[in-house]
Design goal:
Layout lengths: L9 H25 L9 E3 L6 H7 L6 E4 L4 H12 L3 E6 L16 H12 L4 E6 L22 H21 L1
Parallel strand pairs: 1-2, 2-3, 3-4
């Protein structure tokens, strides 16, 4: 849709910013036409792929939250984007699992990683939430999740995740 080579020139960056701004304005206006109070999460940006700042800057006037997926270093990336934009940020998709599995092999979510990540995200004043990828039900296609095909929970990791969430609730209640 846009030739990345154009980003090497001021005119190209200006063109991308105008294109992205028009996209976000159109989307924003269409949503607001039907629901003035709808929370606009924006696009889900891949934090580990090239992301021109012009695109994010164009989104800022038209979204309520900047959403990212990040399977490498979400804590650092979200903090960087919050500081660059002063916008609330959402970790819209992340997990620490074994992605490359053999046929029929399942991989478990990592409750310890979740706990460490949510504790670190809590230290970012701009972070408003965290969506765990593959958190629900694993099956032959997905091959990861907190419930197996018979809906039996991964007790160990569910407990670690529950404990981490309860700790965040405790911190929040202590601050109020």
């Amino acid at each position: 849709m846009f030739d990345p080579e154009l980003l090497s020139t001021e005119a190209g960056r200006k063109e991308l910013k105008a294109l992205a701004g028009r996209y976000y304005q159109t989307t924003h206006d269409a949503i607001r036409r039907y629901d003035k109070h709808h929370l606009i999460l924006g696009d889900r940006y891949e934090a580990n792929a090239p992301l021109p700042v012009e695109v994010v800057e164009s989104a800022v006037p038209y979204v309520d939250i900047l959403s990212f997926q990040d399977f490498r270093d979400p804590v650092r990336h979200l903090d960087d984007w919050h500081k660059k934009t002063n916008m609330p940020v959402l970790l819209a998709d992340a997990a620490r699992i074994k992605w490359q599995t053999e046929p029929g092999e399942f991989t478990r979510n990592n409750g310890k990683w979740y706990s460490e990540t949510i504790q670190s995200l809590y230290q970012n004043p701009g972070c408003i939430g965290f969506h765990l990828c593959g958190a629900y039900q694993r099956n032959k296609a997905r091959r990861y999740g907190l419930l197996d095909e018979q809906e039996n929970p991964d007790v160990e990791n569910v407990k670690l995740i529950t404990d981490a969430n309860q700790q965040v609730l405790k911190w929040v209640s202590e601050e109020m």
